[in-house]
Amino acid sequence: MAQVSNAGEENVPLEYKSGIGRLNIFGFWIFLGAEVALFATIFSAYFVLEGGTAGGPLPSDLFDLNNTIAMTLILLTSSFTCGLAIHEMRKGNRKGMLIWLLVTLLFGGGFLYMEVMEFIHLVHEGATIGTNAYWSSFYVLTGTHGLHVTLGIGWMILIIAEVMKRGLTPHTAKKVFVSSLYWHFLDFVWIFVFTSVYLLGMVK
Amino acid sequence: MEQKTEKHSHFPWSHVLGFLLSIALTFLAVWVGLYTNLSIQTIVALVFLLAFIQAAIQLFMFMHISEGEHKLWQIGKMIASGLIAIIIVVGSVWVLTSMH
Amino acid sequence: MFKNRKAWLIVISSLISLVIITVLGVRSDLIVLDPKGPVGEIQKDLIIFSLYFMLAIVVIIFAVFTFVIIKYRNRKNFNDRDYDPNLHGSTKLEIIWTLIPLLIVIALSIPNAKALYDLKEAPKSTAHKEPIVIHATAVDWKWIFSYPEEEIETINYVNVPENHPVLFKITAADSMASFWVPQIGGQVYGMPGMVNELYLQADEVGTYEGRNSNFTGEGMAHQQFDFVALNEEEYSSWVEETKETAPKLTEETYQKLMLPDTAEQTTFSSTHLEFVDHGLNSTYALKVRADHGLIEEPIEDREEGSHENEHSNHGSHAHH
Amino acid sequence: MFDFIKEHLILDDPLILGANISIALTTIGILFVLTYFKKWKWLWTEWITTVDHKRIGIMYILAALLMFFRGGVDALLMRAQLTVPNNDFLSSHHYNEIFTTHGTIMILFMAMPFLLGLMNFAVPLQIGARDVAFPFLNNLSFWSFFSGAILFNISFVFGGSPDAGWTNYAPLAIEGSPGPGINYYLLGLQVSGIGTLLTGINFVVTIIKMRAPGMTLLRMPMFTWTTLITSFIIVFAFPILTVTLALMTFDRLFGTHFFTLTDGGNPMLWSNMFWMWGHPEVYIVVLPAFGIFSEIIATFARKTLFGYKTMIVSLVVISFLSFIVWVHHFFTMGGSAAVNNIFSITTMAIAIPTGIKLFNWLGTLYKSKIEFTTPMLWSLAFIPTFVIGGVTGVMLGMAAADFQYHNSYFLVAHFHYTLIAGVAFACFAGLIYWYPKMVGYKMNERIGKWAFWLFTIGFNVCFLPQFILGFDGMPRRVYTYAPEDGWTGLNVASSVGAAAMGLGFVVFVYNIYYSHRYAIRETEGDVWDGRTLEWATTTSIPPHYNFAKIPHVQNIDTFWDMKQRAKKQTKKGQKEEGNYEPIHMPSNTGTAPVMCAFFFVAGFALVFELWWMAILGAVGILCCMLVRSVRSFEEDKGYYVSVEEITEAEQPFHKEG
Ligand code: HEA
Ligand code: HEA
Ligand SMILES: [Cu+2]
């Protein structure tokens, strides 16, 4: 709002230049707090229902180490490239930023593709969302994450379009920055999905 | 408001470092989980420790959580979120497994 | 209207009559406060113990409250020396009213913790006697009691010997119910696929009201049973007699009981534990209902065989 | 389609048929009046699409009053049924639907929106801001709350209400309740929950980032503090509810196995997750109430709040503890002694910070100069009554004793003593207190006092006997009892009290009408001799931009402080002439209400598993989001209020000043 005055200092990154920008970025952090609680709740369901595998295939039989590591690395890399995009943005390099964002999108798409393929494979093996409590919570946990990735991709496409049209302004920079926060957060969540679902799923 | 971004405008050191660390931690976790003979409790504790470190890397090196005019609120908020998350997960499991 | 005395009189007299109504309402035989067994006794003692603290707190707060609102009400001859608009706190007082509640909480926690652990075990006074085991199963909307040793099953009433510990193994066939005999002891939930243990003991011969106190749908208000304490001889002869005269419980009869409805008090000389243990099998009643067309979707039997599912009890449902 | 409607419209019950007809007639009546007086455009531009926090606040409060009426009628029906034993006024089925909707509506669609309304109205004014941080989201929040509420409420005439209690425990709510009722519960709460979450985020950002210059954290009014802390609890607790509801929705619609009896599901997980949200929820409603009482007590005691800092510390402690006590709602589920013991201790520990607050209120009254206005009466009545609710809560918190109280009327009495004495009293008090700010005149004090005494005495007559019923073993949620149980006398008393409460509520509402007709209009902003910034606006109803000039804050109780200082300097205070600058304000939004209409469509479709309609709703929602983000391409910057307009709006000041 108007009363949040502009901070005029030169070395302030673009996305923090407007009052609205600062509000939105801060608001987004608060929103991420809510997201943490959301995922934590799904995780709690997952852990509680972990033993409910009766009547269906066991996760340790179906998970494939190489596949999950590949997915993890892809998402990690996309988080990295997304960070590079912000780095370029802060240098004022619009083109560099756009390129890195596109790379991020590509990796994101790749991740989604692998996840969908994995789901198809699992369903073929007889592990569907209705098989038992374990698989229900598996699909809801990974699916919620996947849905977030999908939304993130859609959102970034919109923002890229906007930057192409109007260039880098405090307004667009803020949007890019916020969407990058979102993207890193997806990786943040994935670390825990990877650890508790796949890695420990294979250990047990 | 202090922004420390312009300092490393030439090469994104912190990003590269964070990236490499993340990869290393991921493989370390896989190694601990699948290629050691530790007890299951130790494994669980270790891999979650690694996961939390990696999460912190995301927050500080990628997400610039320590920037902005209210960075303390931001950091406090995320710490509180982590605490709530642990309460939710550990609490639920503890409570529900204690039922006969 | 509210400026004059009369209005205040009305208000105060109604408040006083309220107290009188309530006090009159407190009959001496409020069942929770008139327990007939050691378990209820522990709980009553705890309740009374806490009640003293609470009454003290309430009295103190009411007194201070009345004092301040009468003394500091703005009125014609208000003494301005009593008025200190900038009084913003007092560290000493604040420490006091943090510490005293803290002490009270500690004082309440200790007997509570002790009671919690005591209640998990058989009553101490009769520790030398081997507890009788009775399975209590809630089905919409009736209680089924099985005596595995004696091979007796009763519906909507349970006979126990007086002065003898009874270990109830509580479960349910469908909804989550709560097993409660207020005059004998506090409640615990029964849940399909899970067994909760509850020790109870009656010290006096008599019939006590028991019920399901947890909401389970339309017939819940009527899901009651008689908890009958007999003296030892009467109890033994009841066991003997029932074994001889009561009919056997067939699975067919039992399946009728699985349908949601109330039931009459009945007695059998064999138990349902021979064909199902609801503590392990959470879907038995659902299947029966599906067979009767009461549930739209049939409960699938999985290829691997339903029995395997039932016994691969996952962590939290583990049976003791 | 027609068959579908015929199948689900409930026509066989005279009570509901009557309700059907009266709802239909009222709707037609409202539509007619709007059309006749050509008010549609006004309604759309001034209210539906508004982003003005004050108007959104008022809409919340209106909706909440309506829901209070609905929930209250439910309560009276229940009391009518329970007055005598073996009564057949209501069938078991109806009774079950009614207590379920009563509990759900009172907590989620009455208490929550009432408080959110008061927060919306007062907090930006209290911190000297022009609006909340995200005005668009604020409008969206209101409408998603509203469409959730409507969705929940139509269950009663169309398809049947939920009937598994407001706690909606599995397996009853999954295997035991096949109709659409539970779906209504799940989706109604889901849709309105989104709104609440957004409000939480909005207020955290507003309060942290938009305070007037000089208002440090330790100069914030207490209501602002409680709003801030409540918002944090909302941000952490509501996602839990979102997930919990979603998982059961999946169980019911898509065949998953989270809470089912079959295939490894765990019904206790529902109770666990529900209360992980549910317990913080009761503090979400009571903390703002505490804030309201703090403001009112300080104002009419004419004294600064006692122990301001410890009030804040205790708030923070309560908010943290509220997340680690949830198990006290199911001590009887068979957890180990260790679990029950730990949760008993955390539960009872909440008495300590709450006690600090209580004693601080008493401290505020000490050496004060009390004026018994109606808002003050409600606030004073809160103190002793809430203590009864609180200490009985501590008794419930002792797990070993709770085995005897659980599911009994002792519990029912406890939570009405906290919810009504804590929350409902605060709603009444807050509404009367800020009423002159909202509409420009006070509510009539004499009628207000009648309402107050009827309601509070009725309240005690209704619920005090219920503690004793609990000791006598009367379980909750039973639609009837037998004469032999010996519960008749106290139930009669309780019903008489409920009737008095109903009367009190009616008098309260009548007062709104009466005051609208006859009250003297206020001419300036400070009608109660207030202490905080909302009273510092020059006109009695603040202009839509709130403050022509953002005030500078130098102290707690800023406005009081300003007045004291002004008194010292000159009698009149300095006159601040002109020098206004154009004010930037956000523009209205039509997107949010439309989007929420689609929420409603999607929710309704899911209730009846009408997939085509659900997809339609989802597409609609997505389109609205798209429109919104394309709009923000244009950098919708709102508009400026011109200096002339401001000078005009600030007129009364010049007349008076
Ligand atoms: C606004 C709502 C509200 C509030 C504020 C509270 C406050 C408290 N509640 Fe209550 N509660 C509910 C609403 C609320 N509750 C509802 C709706 C339910 C039932 C839901 C359902 O099942 O449908 C419920 C149920 C409920 C239960 C579950 C019982 C059961 O199901 O068997 C318990 C058990 O521990 C409990 C405890 C407490 C405690 C310890 C407090 C404490 O916060 C109270 C603290 C306050 C005081 C203690 C008074 C002031 C303090 C002093 C004067 C200091 C000195 C005092 C002492 C040292 C004791 N509540
Ligand atoms: C903020 C929350 C709130 C509020 C304000 C109230 C207000 C009231 N509540 Fe309730 N109540 C709950 C929250 C609340 N309640 C909850 C959460 C439950 C648990 C539900 C569950 O078990 O799932 C519950 C349950 C509950 C029960 C227990 C039901 C049972 O277990 O079987 C009872 C019984 O007496 C009751 C009574 C009342 C009464 C008499 C009021 C009174 O204050 C109401 C005052 C009356 C009015 C405001 C009506 C005014 C209107 C008129 C006078 C018009 C009359 C016109 C016609 C009849 C056409 N409530
Ligand atoms: Cu609680």
Spell out the key features of this protein.
heterotetramer, A: 204 residues, mainly alpha, 6 helices, 0% strand, disordered N terminus, B: 100 residues, 2 domains, 3 helices, flat, binds heme-A, binds copper (II) ion, Quinol oxidase subunit 4 (chain B), Cytochrome_c_oxidase_bac_sub4 (chain B), transmembrane (chain B)
Structure description:
Chain A: Keywords: Cell membrane, Membrane, Oxidoreductase, Transmembrane, Transmembrane helix. Chain A: Catalyzes quinol oxidation with the concomitant reduction of oxygen to water. Chain A: It catalyses: 2 a quinol + O2 = 2 a quinone + 2 H2O. Chain A: Belongs to the cytochrome c oxidase subunit 3 family. The complex is a heterotetramer of chains A (about 200), B (about 100), C (about 325) and D (about 650). Chain A is mostly helical and about 200 residues long. Helices cover about 80% and strands about 0% of the residues of chain A. In chain A, helix 1 runs parallel beside helix 6. The longest helix of chain A is centred in the last third of the chain and has 34 residues, at about 135-165. The N and C termini of chain A lie far apart (about 55 Å). The model of chain A is unreliable at about 1-10 (pLDDT under 50). Chain B is mainly alpha-helical and about 100 residues long. Chain B has 2 domains: about 10-65; about 70-100. Chain B is built from 3 helices and no strands. Chain D has a two-stranded antiparallel ribbon with strand order 1-2.
Could you spell the SSE succession of chain D in H and E letters?
Answer: HHHHHHHHHHHHHHHHHHEHHEHH
- Given the helix and strand composition of chain D, which structural class is it? mainly alpha
Topology-level CATH name of the largest domain in chain C: Immunoglobulin-like
- Spatial gap, N to C terminus of chain D: 65 Å
Instruction: Supply the number of helical segments of chain C.
Output: 7
DSSP strand count of chain D: 2
What structural class do helix, strand and pairing data of chain C support? alpha+beta
The percent range for strand residues of chain C is 15-25%
Average residue pLDDT of chain D: 90
Protein name (chain C): Quinol oxidase subunit 2
Keywords (chain C): Cell membrane, Electron transport, Membrane, Oxidoreductase, Respiratory chain, Signal, Transmembrane, Transmembrane helix, Transport
Region (Disordered) (chain C): 297-320
Subcellular location (chain C): Cell membrane
